[in-house]
Amino acid sequence: MRDVWVVGDRFAGFARLNGVTTVSGAGDVLDGEPVTLRLGQGVGPHERDHLRALVERRGLADRVVVVDTTPAPAGRDLVHKHLAANVLLGDVHAAGGGIVTAALRLAGENELLLDHQTGLHVQGMVVIEAVRQMLLAAYATASRRPDDYVVWNGIQLDFESFLFPLPARLYCALEPVTDGRGTARVQVEQGGRRVASALARFTAFAAERIAPVEQRRAEGALRAGMPESLTAGAST
Predict the structure, then answer these.
(1) C-alpha to C-alpha distances, 206 to 77, 161, 180, 209, nearest whole angstrom
(2) Nearest CA to 200 among 175, 183, 178?
(3) CA distance 1 to 37
(4) How far apart are CA 223 and CA 126, in angstroms?
(5) Which of 134, 133, 110 is nearest to 122 (CA)?
(6) Residue 197 contacts residue 186 (beta carbons within 8 Å)
(7) Which residues form the A-factor biosynthesis hotdog domain (predicted)?
């Protein structure tokens, strides 16, 4: 039985490779021969159900297997995203040795894919956002304080290879947090190869502490941005 990867229609460039097709093009590989359709990035439950229905309609259920290993999206409390399509992580868990790991899950309608897709690889902005979500998820998982407000102080991110629309995992090692300040090392791996690594510095605040600080700074920015005439009028 041959294997064919199925990726979202946005990754049509990658689907030009042998052994890959898009959701819309999957019917072309159902030629009656036994085949395993393995779902890659950009293929959600709606697309998966479409593929399974297509197999049933063609009477190929005994020769075609649809394999979906995409995990459910991580919860809001871990990644601070309200729309499931914008959640880039699933299967978040502690892996031992101070490491928290998660699977990359990229929906075809993710906010970072709405403009365009260049080349065969996944856009670098997706990697950056996945690293951000991984830091939040790792801190919430390791500290058991999901309500803390985590602020990035700085990040150094190195791209070491292309990320393609296939399964990938992220790993995050958190150094001990002192006075709310911490450091995290994140790696993105695909096919046994590291494609990106990041060193992030952050500060974690209790939610009730950060709110008044943010408000004071917002008010200061507002005053600084006002024309002098309005500022003078506001002070009288």
Answers:
(1) 14, 37, 9, 5
(2) 183
(3) 10
(4) 35
(5) 110
(6) yes
(7) 78-203
Q: What is the DSSP letter of 43?
A: -
Q: How do beta strands 169-174 and 181-190 pair? A: antiparallel
* Cβ-Cβ contacts under 8 Å for 180 (sequence gap 6 or more): 203, 204, 205
CA distance 166 to 12: 13
Token digits of residue 132? 């951000």
State phi, psi for 177 to the nearest 5 degrees: -85, 125
**pLDDT value for 233:** 53
Count of CB atoms within 10 A of residue 199's CB? Answer: 13
C-alpha atoms less than 13 angstroms from C-alpha of 127 in its C-beta half-sphere: 26
Nearest CA among 89, 186, 200, 104 for reference residue 155: 200
91 φψ region: left (φ > 0), alpha (ψ -120 to 50), beta (else):
left
In the chain (236 residues long), the average pLDDT of successive 10-residue segments reads 95 96 95 93 95 95 95 93 96 93 96 88 96 95 81 94 98 89 96 97 85 88 78 51
Tokens of 142: 């390791």
State which H helix or E strand residue 169 sits in.
Answer: strand 169-174
Name residue, tokens 């990938």: 168
Helix segments in the chain, DSSP class H: 45-57, 76-79, 124-143, 207-225, 228-235
Cα 2 to Cα 39, 74, 174, distances in angstroms:
14, 32, 41
The pLDDT value recorded for residue 236 is: 44
Structure tokens at 145: 């304080």
